[in-house]
TrEMBL record, chains A, B:
<dbReference type="InterPro" id="IPR011032">
    <property type="entry name" value="GroES-like_sf"/>
</dbReference>
<feature type="domain" description="Enoyl reductase (ER)">
    <location>
        <begin position="15"/>
        <end position="328"/>
    </location>
</feature>
<dbReference type="InterPro" id="IPR020843">
    <property type="entry name" value="ER"/>
</dbReference>
<dbReference type="InterPro" id="IPR045010">
    <property type="entry name" value="MDR_fam"/>
</dbReference>
<dbReference type="Pfam" id="PF00107">
    <property type="entry name" value="ADH_zinc_N"/>
</dbReference>
<dbReference type="Pfam" id="PF16884">
    <property type="entry name" value="ADH_N_2"/>
</dbReference>
<keyword id="KW-0560">Oxidoreductase</keyword>
<dbReference type="GO" id="GO:0016628">
    <property type="term" value="F:oxidoreductase activity, acting on the CH-CH group of donors, NAD or NADP as acceptor"/>
</dbReference>
<protein>
    <submittedName>
        <fullName>NADP-dependent oxidoreductase</fullName>
    </submittedName>
</protein>
<dbReference type="InterPro" id="IPR041694">
    <property type="entry name" value="ADH_N_2"/>
</dbReference>
<dbReference type="InterPro" id="IPR036291">
    <property type="entry name" value="NAD(P)-bd_dom_sf"/>
</dbReference>
<dbReference type="InterPro" id="IPR013149">
    <property type="entry name" value="ADH-like_C"/>
</dbReference>
Length: 332, 332
């Protein structure tokens, strides 16, 4: 089978030469183990930090020669365990490989009928849901601003705020096509292109009553403008997943000037999360409910081409080429 | 009478040449007005910001030629109002002058028997109390770290945490004398000199269980170390009053790197306050109660020498020459 390994640590811009595609023996399941075929890989801009030797995440970055990690969904194709049967849909953390093997309890079973597609299990919803509900505590009457709103987390975060009763949800993104998408397809109340004049002007026009919740994926000017446009006591959830994004800002995580925030008593709530089982369960329940009620859209791209398409897909994701969540179809 | 005016805006270090001592006519109270003698001026490092032309506070800085403002307590010496009688103790916001006049309702009456001295009304307690109780919400079982703990706000903030049931209160200050004072006189559980090796080493030794509340008057290295030494979900109240302090750090307000804070889900809560009537009332009630129960010490210096001693007193305060709160006796 094929797997993808880290060829060298990332220094400046990400290119496909950061990865090695290597052929290795397809593993054999031992007693109590299963062989799982990787069906879809989920991608996230947070991967960028894991590719750096100087990652600032509190977990070790990936080593050169090591397989690229991350979440995936797969299908059991051989089973030496009574716990899983051939054909079962499972979650796998085996990373960028075509097949993996291990004890059955390493592969939590997934309900194939809960969602329209297995890729729904690979969304960045647990981050968006945790951030909007537990960190920002967005609810009835809130005026919510989401920066980086067309991304994997932001596109879900804005809809979550609406479903939780926000009075108004405003998004920013980097192109007119994304702006139209946010308003026309995802139901944002308003959106603007952050290249199009001062961010503060947009916010003052769109939220003259003051922002009460800011879900920040970007930092920099958008953070500063949100402080200026905030109501006293606003809650700012700073999302660590997308703050690592390559973009118009220099910092990999906001280092905000808090002077103006102090005057308004703004709560600055930086967070990052690795999708605890509780967070995944809370998101899965709400996501499936909201989808069934036609209150939610899952913005999603499936990249075709098998495992070898994964490196270029991640590069494209980090260039902002996609809207919403992105996964790679490994097996068809 | 004499009053003190701003001579020039502050650029680098504060000196007494920032001030002009000028003689002006003692004002005459009109009908409905009172004449109030200034007894004590309260001083605070927050004044530093008001002296700068480029103040980052959300209120206009003082203008050159304008009288220096700030809180004081005084005594009514003439009254053309039925609301106040000669001899009444009042609060005044007239600033650095020997006498002021205005409508009686500009001078809230104070209970002369509530505290041992009128200077108790000039403490920075409303900031400390609001920050520790309403922003950090310190309470039973919390492990609390206060930076700049020997200052006007910090010396009260640590004791407030203890009175609210904190399990442990740790302070940092800039000299061994201040450390001894914090532990021996103010009842801090532990204290350390921030010049004495890495701050993080002190915190790991003194709070191996992890800090749950940080009341930060300083920023810089102390903020970074507190993040490292914090328990998940800790609350960090960043006090804008003392963050303007001249000290070992370059920034006038912390511009923290929030990456590590994100990993622990630390709530960063910058605040500044101008002592609303509600905040003053809440503090006054608790302060008088705790003092009467012998649970609280009021760390305080009264600078003698009249109004003309005020400029040098403020310069000395900003050099860290005092412990606790500082007031100037204007009339004796």
């Amino acid at each position: 089978m094929w797997e993808v390994r880290l060829a060298k640590h990332l220094k400046a811009d990400l290119g496909t030469d950061t990865f090695d595609l290597v052929q290795v023996p397809t593993p054999e399941p031992a007693a109590g183990e299963v062989l799982v075929r990787t069906d879809y890989l989920g991608l996230s801009v947070a991967y960028l930090e894991m590719l750096r030797a100087d990652s600032r995440l509190p977990i070790p970055p990936w080593e050169v020669g090591q397989r690229i990690g991350g979440g995936a969904v797969g299908t059991v194709v051989r089973s030496n365990s009574a716990e899983l049967a051939v054909g079962d849909l499972v979650r796998t953390m085996a990373g960028w490989c075509e097949y993996s093997t291990g004890p059955a309890d390493q592969y939590p079973g997934l309900d194939p009928d809960l969602f329209p597609s297995p890729v729904h299990y690979l969304s960045q919803g647990p981050t968006a849901y945790y951030g909007m509900s537990e960190v920002a505590k967005a609810g009835a009457g809130d005026v919510v601003f989401v920066s980086g709103a067309a991304g994997g987390v932001g596109s879900l975060a804005g809809q979550i705020a609406t479903c939780r009763g926000a009075a108004k949800v405003i998004g920013s993104a980097g192109s007119q096509a994304k702006i139209d998408y946010l308003v026309d397809e995802l139901g944002f109340d308003a959106a603007f292109d952050y290249h199009d004049g001062p961010v503060l002007d947009h916010l003052r026009e769109l939220a003259p009553e003051g922002i009460t919740v800011f879900f920040d994926n970007v930092g920099g000017e958008q953070f500063d403008a949100a402080v200026e446009a905030a109501a006293p006591g606003a809650r700012f959830a700073l999302c660590g997943a997308l703050a690592t994004q390559i973009g118009d800002h220099e910092d990999r995580f906001p280092e905000p000037d808090l002077t103006a925030a102090a005057a308004k008593g703004i709560a600055v709530l930086p967070f990052s999360t690795y999708h605890t089982p509780e967070q995944v369960a809370a998101w899965t329940e709400h996501f499936s409910t909201w989808l069934s009620e036609d209150r939610f859209v899952f913005p999603h791209t499936i990249v075709e081409g098998g495992l070898s398409a994964a490196p270029q897909a991640l590069v494209s994701l980090l260039k902002g080429s996609f809207k919403g969540n992105v996964s790679v179809r490994v097996a068809s």
